[in-house]
Amino acid sequence: MTTEQQPIRSGFGETSTSSQVIVGIDLSGKTIIVTGGHSGIGLETTKILAEAGATIIVGARDIEKATQALSDVKNVSIIKLDLSEPLSVDEFTNEYRKSFDRCDILINNAGIMATPLLRNSLGYEMQFATNHLGHFQLTAKLWNELRKSGARVICLSSLGHRFSGIRFDDPNFQTHPYEKWTAYGQSKTANSLFAVHLDKIGKQYGVRAFAVHPGRITSTELSRFMSDEEKATATSSVSTIPNYVPSYIKSIAQGSATTVWCATSPQLENKGGVYCADCDISPIVENDSLQINGVRRWAVNPSMAEQLWMLSEKLAGFHWAK
């Protein structure tokens, strides 16, 4: 088990905002990709990083919507990206290379949650395909650009990882009944495990990876597939969501803080492969724990991370060129 998965007492916390954690940090000359950087905490992340001087490239499925949302943000470009479809990921990276030869920070932010059973063109379950496999492919295709910069890669996970580990025998629900929260939990565990193994292979090049739980934010479009009952109970002490535990509800500015902290903070120099929340590295808790501020062992287990990596290569149809 990774020995770095323990709090460092950063001085920030659950109420810290992205504008607070980036004070004193100059990103002039840096190139940053933010998937889904046009809505919710992704939009706030884009704004804050652009204000600090970075050039931002936003990957978005809906170009018109992204253009409207980012109309008043300077130093931002938009490239079409549908993470659920491998061809779109390839097209994004090809378009990116027309203008840029490096990437200093990659923020794998976009995601979907608790969808009905949907599948992509390859037949893969949509939450796993979008939240994990799409970002796995994107990071692989940008590997040379990331190594050139000694980049940080931020993978948006969630406390929802507690709903499920990786279902290695049936990740796409081909033989087992589909359950939307189990599928979501699996995809968020995958985000965390991806950061663990990516950091392992990347640190020799200066590439470090971090998984992030942004916190509970109820004012974004992530909940668009939830029923009215689920939305209503999400702010109460009783819920139909498995293993639900009431917790502090963050603003969007607070929700983007841990992403920005992981992407830019000098406190994380020479660190990586860890799951973070509330602008700090989270402690490990037991898999059956209902504790809020903690990461389950299955989400930071190096052997499971390597096993997921091999499964992801198989499903994506390529071997990572390390």
Report a brief summary of the structure.
The protein is of the alpha/beta class.
Uncertain spans, ≥5 residues at pLDDT below 50?
Answer: 234-238
What name is given to the CATH topology?
A: Rossmann fold
* CATH architecture assignment name: 3-Layer(aba) Sandwich
Shape by Cα distribution: globular
Assembly type of the chains comes to single chain
Which class of secondary structure composition applies to the elements? alpha/beta
**Strand numbers in spatial order across the main sheet:** 3-2-1-4-5-6-7-8
- Mean residue pLDDT: 92
Q: Specify the helix fraction band.
A: 25-40%
Q: Determine the N-to-C terminus distance.
A: 23 Å
What do we call the CATH homologous superfamily? NAD(P)-binding Rossmann-like Domain
